[in-house]
Design goal:
Elements lengths: L1 H8 L5 E6 L4 H17 L4 E6 L4 H6 L3
Parallel strand pairs: 1-2
Length: about 60
Amino acid sequence: MKSNFNAIIDTPTPVLVDFYAEWCGPCKTLMPILEQVKSELGDAIKVIKIDVDKNHLLAANYQV
């Protein structure tokens, strides 16, 4: 995942990375806000979601 992650974020387009967990209440609260940001900014930004339970090494690497 790390090599894919680096390829995804290494772009001239700004990338907002949401490290989340399915069980996380605040993460669920943030989801509609991120959707609104993406809707308003369109292709000017990339929004990606990283499940910390499935990508724990990546999350640990970024101290999430």
